[in-house]
Amino acid sequence: MHNIDLTxxxxxxxxxxKNGEVDYEAFxxxxxxxxxxxxxxLVPLGTTGxxxxxEDEERIKVLQIAKEHSKGRPVVVGGGTNSLxxxxxxxxxxxxxxxxxxxxxxxxxNKPTQEGQYQYFKAVAESTDKPIVLYNVPGRTxxxxxxxxxxxxxxxxxxxxxxxASGNREQIEAILAGAPEGFQVLSGNDDDTLxxxxxxxxxIISVASNVAPALLAEFTTAVRNGEMEKAEELNEKLTPxxxxxxxxxxxxxxxxxxxxxxxxxxxxxxPLVPAQQSTYDLMVETIRPLGLL
Length: 293
Known about the structure:
The chain has helices at about 25-35, 55-70, 85-95, 115-125, 140, 145-155, 170-180, 195-200, 215-225, 230-245, 250-260, 275-285; strands at about 10, 15-20, 20, 40-45, 75-80, 100-105, 130-135, 160-165, 185, 205. It is of the alpha/beta class.
């Protein structure tokens, strides 16, 4: 098992845009804010980063900035597509620029069988020496990775973790129960974090921590330290943010909140568009009680 620790809170980083271009200055400031808040690891170039709409040179620059500003925190880089050859080419392109591990999503749109998923991830893992984090998110991909397939893949030497965003607690419990030593199970849904960590999960790859990194870091640290009364209070305090970050497609609400805080432009790339006014207002009312305005 490769030596990478993904315990605690990692942030699935947004990619800021300004006048149609990646706002690299705002992205660097975003990473600095995450690090200063105590986030445990960084996850650029994932779904939240609108990566399918980034050009290769933009992806490389985003990764370089994340690595340069990480202050030694692990950088887990989104690298998955729905084509094996494209995924491997993407990984080879990004590998020289500071990848500590790759986050690889279940192939979307193709709807592979469980055997197809296994063979795909096996080929991906064999193409690199870097640790691989599986990413199961049926709401985005159209197909679920079962606990059986996940645990089968967990036997491969550089498959080190899974980001589980199925919301299927029975399935997640089966993965936690059967996981080999050193294989980490991460929540892919902010609102599942407390439950999953109580059951033995390592932590969260969070969307909400783009908006409230210090509170998310405090929350996951409290769970890890067994300070359950504090953890439950923070979970209750953060639940509106967890929920409202998904009232429109991610990262639309998170970007609205960050714009309201003066951190980024409220800009996305088509086919995503900025939040409706009602969502923008909701996010303002969500972050105000958290002391973020």
